[in-house]
């Protein structure tokens, strides 16, 4: 038989009667609201009265999630680094290949521009135009401006003055993409494309050659080469002789292209000349009327 329990609150000293079914339970006092525990004979409290269930801390779960996320992030970074390390050489290789193609296109375009000049004047431009004292005054690249889509610049350029004169000082800061290799590390105002000059070549002794002068055949005659490191502004009257070309090739520093030299033949085609090409063959390619047999690379 259940008997009511009289209980005096230790906080407010008020006495209340509660049913014995609440013996050992904890809950708020009906008078003061403070937490009390209904006593039981020879026992300990069993559970809280009307109290919310104990809340299990989620700290451990959060820590585990954080650890998992951290490990995952580290693995992701590691995999990303490995993937980047694997892909970067391939990406760089494709970029260099594209730049090499663009440089070959520049050479072909310049060869075509030289032929267009020849069609208009019945001669190719001389490698340089001398002043009254015979000193080279300006380059064939300035003469070729109208044929590389630079007509306004050609109209401003003073061919009666030296390329580095006050009258032509404005060109010092002008870069022309057609005259600069995309592979080059030189300033954009510099050129990497040079005529092959000197004895036996199309442009020996400052002459303006005609197409019919190329008796070895235009496909066998070297016209232009791509050279890195000559530090030459595009308007500067400077080109390269066979001997200089050989020296540059022997040094291995001649071209931004690895292992060889990009070049254009007199027929407008482009060639890649390996650094170890037989020097007699290279010499035969630079002459325009030598009659030597030519084995193209």
Would you mind describing this structure in some detail?
With 297 residues, the chain is of the alpha+beta class. The model is unreliable at 42-59 (pLDDT under 50). 31% of the residues lie in helices and 17% in strands. It contains five helices and 14 strands. The strands form five sheets. It has a five-stranded mixed β-sheet with strand order 12-9-10-13-14. It has a three-stranded mixed β-sheet with strand order 4-3-5, with no helix packed on it. Strands 1-2 form a two-stranded antiparallel ribbon.
How are the elements arranged and paired?
Layout: E1 5-8, E2 15-18, E3 25-28, E4 35-37, E5 47-48, H1 59-121, E6 128-130, E7 136-139, H2 140-143, H3 151-156, E8 190-191, E9 193-197, E10 222-226, E11 232-233, E12 240-241, H4 242-251, E13 260-265, E14 270-274, H5 279-286
Parallel strand pairs: 3-5, 9-12
Antiparallel strand pairs: 1-2, 3-4, 6-7, 8-11, 9-10, 10-13, 13-14
Radius of gyration: 44 Å
% residues in beta strands: 15-25%
Q: Pairing-aware structural class of the strands and helices?
A: alpha+beta
> Count of DSSP E strands?
14
- Large-scale geometry: rod-shaped
Q: Oligomerization state of this entry?
A: single chain
What characteristics describe this protein?
5 helices, three-stranded mixed sheet, 14 strands, single chain, 31% helix, 297 residues, five-stranded mixed sheet, alpha+beta
């Amino acid at each position: 038989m259940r008997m009511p329990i009289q209980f005096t609150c230790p906080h407010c000293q008020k006495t209340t009667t509660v049913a014995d079914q609440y013996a050992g339970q904890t809950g708020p006092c009906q008078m003061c609201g403070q937490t009390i525990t209904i006593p039981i004979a020879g026992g300990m409290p069993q559970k809280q009265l009307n109290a919310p269930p104990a809340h299990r801390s989620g700290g451990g779960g959060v820590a585990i999630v954080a650890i998992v996320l951290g490990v995952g992030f580290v693995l992701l970074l590691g995999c990303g680094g490995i993937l980047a390390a694997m892909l970067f050489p391939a990406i760089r290789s494709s970029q260099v290949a594209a730049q090499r193609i663009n440089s070959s296109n520049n050479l072909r375009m310049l060869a075509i521009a030289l032929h267009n000049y020849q069609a208009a004047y019945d001669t190719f431009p001389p490698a340089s135009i001398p002043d009254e004292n015979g000193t080279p005054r300006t380059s064939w690249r300035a003469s070729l401006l109208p044929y590389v889509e630079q007509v306004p610049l050609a109209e401003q350029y003073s061919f009666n003055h030296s390329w580095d004169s006050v009258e032509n000082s404005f060109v010092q800061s002008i870069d022309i993409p057609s005259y600069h290799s995309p592979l080059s590390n030189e300033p954009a105002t510099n050129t990497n494309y040079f005529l092959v000059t000197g004895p036996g070549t199309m442009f020996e002794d400052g002459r303006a050659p005609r197409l019919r002068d190329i008796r070895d055949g235009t496909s066998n005659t070297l016209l232009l080469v791509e050279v890195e490191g000559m530090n030459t502004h595009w308007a500067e009257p400077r080109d390269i002789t066979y001997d200089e070309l050989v020296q540059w090739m022997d040094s291995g520093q001649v071209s931004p292209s690895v292992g060889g030299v990009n070049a254009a033949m007199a027929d407008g085609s482009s060639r890649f000349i390996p650094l170890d090409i037989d020097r007699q063959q290279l010499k035969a390619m630079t002459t325009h009327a030598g009659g030597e047999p030519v084995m193209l690379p």
